[in-house]
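ugh ok so i messed up the first submission bc i forgot one of the chains. this is the corrected input, ALL of the components this time, i swear. 674 residues overall. if the numbers dont match what u have on ur side tell me asap before i send this to the collaborators (the ones from the other lab, u know who)
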Amino acid sequence: MTRFLLSRMTHAVLLLFGVSLLTFLFTALAPGDYFEEMRLDPRIGPETVSALRTRFGLDRPLAVRYASWLKSVVRGDLGYSFSYNSPAGPLLWARARSTLLLTFTATLLTWGLALPLGIWSAERLGKIPDTLISWAMAALLVIPDLVIALGLLLLAVRSGWFPTGGMASVNADALTAGQRIGDLGRHLILPVAVLVFVALPVVVRHVRAAMIGVLDAPFLRVARGHGIRRHRLLYRYALPAAANPLISLFGLSIGALISGSLIVEITMSWPGIGPFMVEAILARDIYVVLGGVLLSTCFLIAGNFCADLILYWADPRIRAGSEEK
Amino acid sequence: MTARRNLFKWIAALVALHGVIACAGFFAPDDPLAQDREHPFAPPVKLHFRDAQRHLHARPFFHPFRKSASALDPYVEDAARSIPLRFFIAGAPYKLLGLVPSRVHLFGTDGEPLYLLGTDGYGRDQLTRILYGGQISLLAGWLGAGIALSFGLLIGATAGYCGGWGDEILMRVAELFLALPWLYLLLALRAFLPLSVSPLGAFLMIVAVVGTLGWARPARLVRGVVLSAKERDYVRAARGFGASDAYLLWRHILPETSGVLLTQAAILIPQYVLAEMTLSFLGLGVPEPAASWGNLLGNLQQYDVLVSYWWMYLPALAIVPFFLAYLGLASALQECMNTVGAQHWRGQE
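and heres the new structure output, hopefully the right one now
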């Protein structure tokens, strides 16, 4: 177990290190920075700008800047935001919580829907439910996320059924705790719906394919012959046998949802990392951008790590394989 | 056989769709930059076949708008006037495919403006701008995919053919690129490039950014194909006859990667069209006055536009048939390759 954990951890840390190096190199290629824009302002003299640049260490060589940035990343500061004049880490973290809430809910709901749909589809292979589900999923697949997000937003605006943006109503402070949770839930509906619609077709397709592969297996025919009920047969015996590729997909789906949540957050003005990063890009606040990329990569790697752990727990072959080495 | 027929069906659909966009000047009734300050945010006109006396007409007609006093609904149909639609009519000059100067439009009217899909805030025809916008968005997708596939082919073939530590390093870097949430990476890379640039500069920038980020997946796939191809018996035989590395790659190994590259192209092009849309939607891509599907949608970021003018949403739907056709093509290609592969193996037995 420890050996398996250690190898996955080293892999994750190396990956994060590589990502930080890669994104930091991009900044070196960038023409201009936050203070470059300042120079256009006639009220600010060039000596002030260069003094500011020195203060924030922008005049030092690249390697030194990288080292000091890395140090601040390890401290959890993730660099310094020029436009907010404070460490970027706490700023990003406040937004990351809303992003996590969004993606976590969407992940749960996607898999909660995809498993029964995919299993049902595989069980009734070629019959009406299967055809219907396949068509619905194909339809969802050809509509890109931006179009779904804007379409649902348009629906919300024209029907007035859902709040059209943000995370809480204007009067949220006056509400009781229970009402506030309900309010948050109502605001969650649309963004989560977009993410689920985007992720669902891929997941359902894989669940269906994995289950089709298993349902023909002799051990299931024997189980059916013993008169085990359909529900128990599918979920207790067939699903675990089909689970392996699905668990890997679970890790990948988290990554897709994090990337997808960017569009959703911006269109639905959900106060997550996405809008904050766009704002930082427009202000040339590079460390916030770098921090955002690093943080989202962290979530992604954490998701894959979880998937690895579940796989280790679920599949004895992997456990045995890692013990042998 | 059905796989092949499927493939041709999707290719035909794609050719037709791209043809419409490529000949935007002919299909669009107006000039994409022509403004009509008298008609800002005019709703789509309704085409009629039946007049007030319930007579049926073969030629569709519409009632032009007249301004009403009501601020809520400023455009009302002027039922007293009927303007017939004319086909193959002379209108705003344009260049067909950017080469042939022409004035002939598929449809239009004599003088009265025709806004089939409404107008934007400057009174520019939405249909025209959607058609012209497609040129930029699709071209960005094609060029981006071209760059990504070229890099992918180059790196994948090098890694697969040479092997050793170079292979190891290249594949680790590819893994790195695949590990990143790519939309964030796209934004980050965009963040480090100049903000305000000309439409052409912005276009090239998007293509470059999108293209350089996408090499990892094709590179890994190409590497896999090259690895198996270079161990084939006929390749070994050719090597035994003294063929050079360059000849082997060019004559025997790279042709094997064509299937993977085609499938990847069918997957990547719509993805990159969407990337352009996303960037332009956020105001980080192709700027006004040029039209692209993304910056047409960018209007929706203003709340009053979103609430009041539903036809501003229509550019979003333009991409759906393209997505459908490309996805169909990708799966048909995959199916075709599977059957071709199967025949290949059967032939060897």
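quick check: Chain A is about 80% helix and 0% strand. that seems consistent at least. Chain A touches chain B through 47 residues (CB under 8 Å).
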